[in-house]
Write a structure and sequence with these properties.
Order of helices and strands: EEEEEEEEEEE
Largest sheet: 7 strands, mixed
Distance between the termini: 40 Å
Number of strands: 11
Number of helices: 0
Structural class: mainly beta
């Protein structure tokens, strides 16, 4: 069982930046970020492999969001730049899975709210 704790959410104006963190209680392999806006399905944001550090981000955030990790701290980061109001959502980190479907991940954090004002 892996416990995940997100932090770093908040309110930011459009065009601004935020960095989210997700600390894991143990070593993980692939870690992913998802987001869920009210009334919408959980959306894949991106993921990062444990050993290679290879990342993959979704089309809706490509060029604006980057994912990184610090394996010594068992922590993954989501740097979000050029934020738009459409990025408003609860952001979750996940592990124990692979791919872009939320159903394929076994462990989830509690989520952190990101609100982008216009």
């Amino acid at each position: 069982q892996v416990q995940l704790v997100e932090s770093g959410g908040g309110l930011v104006q459009a065009g601004g930046s935020l960095r989210l963190s997700c600390a894991a209680s143990g070593r993980t392999y692939i870690m992913a970020w998802f987001r869920q806006a009210p009334g919408k399905e959980r959306e894949f944001v991106g993921n990062i492999a444990g050993n290679s550090g290879l990342t993959y981000v979704g089309d809706s955030v490509k060029g604006r969001f980057t994912i990184s990790r610090d394996n010594a701290k068992n922590t993954v980061y989501l740097q979000m730049n050029s934020l738009k109001p459409d990025d408003t959502a609860v952001y979750y980190c996940a592990s124990g899975g692979t791919g872009t479907s939320a159903a394929r991940y076994n462990f989830w954090g509690q989520g952190t709210q990101v609100t982008v004002s216009s």
